[in-house]
């Protein structure tokens, strides 16, 4: 953020130039350093969130549903969108993406839907039988049959990249394919692409809404398996987003399309700096460097503003300061938890549109003085700022009002530990009676994996508790 000697970012580390380069040489550097990202959508939730994301990306870049650039599209002069789209010889732009589900139903909707001409048919991968909400089926039996074919397709996508930066994995914690196959995929990615960034967007089981009885089992098992393989996991829960759609957008009974379009705006904000120019762009590795203080503490909380309907849009100010304050309100959070109950370790503010660094810095200064935001004492400043010049796009028929600027806040806070303790409690209730365990063991899973996974989650809760303890208190404890 400082205006010192320009630095070259290599995997999140800044290397100063010996002398300031000329503007032309720097432009050349930027043009030829392609940083592609491959998106992997796994299971029903992953596929449906993916649909909302690609709908939004194509709108933002002026790409038609069959993959061609619209006349007069801004992307004609900007190659940034090649991060997510691969240009073909025939002038089409194909998503660097893979849709994976163990049964064909949800992916068939993509094959026959509005965007059927956008995706390469080989990147829509389906099996013949589903995971039946069973982690073990997704990870051990049914999933094992599909994984080699999936890894082969990922290798082809990676070979088509000149500087692959990493992977985005979209999946749910609660479903059989999302949890089981999602975990298996992350294990294999870790083996084959160890040095590449792996960022997850995961649908976490909502506190009150539930799509299946065994969600707590699937969630604890997949968290345990992926903990060491994922670099950063952005969690969303359907209940929090459902409430946002009802209260902020006035949608009386939100469906998955409403929820996923809102999630897509968050994903777009996170990826905007990879696809568009900005005065303070944030690189994929910078997210990890700034948000993940310890490898296991990698579950940032996402908040978005403004979330307003078209009817209210004309009556709102949406100044940089207002957006910043809105992002510290629990009503705009994508996971149900109370940030006042925890301490912040890091906070990444990603602005889009008509925003200048001076206003953003002033808003942060206001937040620090007016709000009782507690940071852990070993990381007292903790704010990272990103500004992308491209304003958020308006998807036709969507609930959100078109706005000139927006803010997505990613914060690593100890408050999210409440989500883990709620999940662990539900797991304990089921497992105390060994309810449904035979379905998992019947698919070749060892029963010991349940207690091993639960112990790992207890350790994760403990990790969050320990990072929130003040250094002085920790030293006192260590003396006894």
Automatic annotation (TrEMBL):
From the Swiss-Prot or TrEMBL record, give the protein name. Answer: Tubulin alpha chain
Q: Which residues form the Tubulin/FtsZ GTPase domain?
A: 81-278
Bilayer-crossing residues are none
Q: Per its record, what are the GO molecular function terms? A: GTP binding; hydrolase activity; metal ion binding; structural constituent of cytoskeleton
Indicate the segments forming the Tubulin/FtsZ 2-layer sandwich domain, all copies: 280-425
Q: What species was this sequence derived from?
A: Rhizoctonia solani
Q: Which of UniProt's keywords are assigned here? A: Coiled coil, Cytoplasm, Cytoskeleton, GTP-binding, Hydrolase, Magnesium, Metal-binding, Microtubule, Nucleotide-binding
Q: Which reaction does it catalyse?
A: GTP + H2O = GDP + phosphate + H(+)
Protein role: Tubulin is the major constituent of microtubules, a cylinder consisting of laterally associated linear protofilaments composed of alpha- and beta-tubulin heterodimers. Microtubules grow by the addition of GTP-tubulin dimers to the microtubule end, where a stabilizing cap forms. Below the cap, tubulin dimers are in GDP-bound state, owing to GTPase activity of alpha-tubulin.
Q: What's this protein's family per the entry?
A: Belongs to the tubulin family.
Per its Swiss-Prot or TrEMBL entry, what cofactor is needed?
A: Mg(2+)
Q: Which PROSITE patterns match?
A: TUBULIN
